[in-house]
Design a protein that fits this description.
The chain is about 35% helix and about 15% strand. It is α/β, with parallel strands linked by helices and about 190 residues long. α2 links the parallel β1 and β2. InterPro entries: Exostosin, Exostosin_GT47. This is Exostosin GT47 domain-containing protein.
Amino acid sequence: MVTWQNKMRSMDRPHLFSFVGAPRTGVEKAAIRDEILRQCAESSQCRMLKCGRVGASKCHNPKEVLKVMSVSRFCMQAPGDSFTRRSTFDSILAGCIPVFFSPHTAYTQYEWYLPRDPSEYSVYIPEKKWKQIEKELMKIPKAKMIPRITYTHPNATNGKDKKYQDAVDIALAQLSKHVMMNPIPIQ
């Protein structure tokens, strides 16, 4: 895990943002995807892996997806067929900060698995600012971020017998906090 994190920390990230995805038609979610695709195509600071008929095989290849995400600071996470996206976790593993356009994409879906404060691991751009994605991202100070959303071998340690905190540990800690704050009355 440390080897991977160090590799992601040392990556040159010449692109401000990236998008791995395809346009959607006939659904409400299509608006933000179309906007991201348009802005990305017009920007020299965006890296895109267009999915769909052309490039579909690359979009299903984790190496190709990580190749795009690992050279970008921010990864666009537009809702797809559902609010949740595997791409959210791909971007975190690539050290690319996920950018959400709907609070349901991660904030309500994974509240037990991700840090309570979404600003610790992501950026949210509300609909009124969709027309200026690049401008909004340029306002955010540069920061290296490798969230703890990784799964480790159960016996892995980070030296001196301290166990790595991974996604399972975070989920259990969040569950424990939730139970402590909201005890279930015994009848």
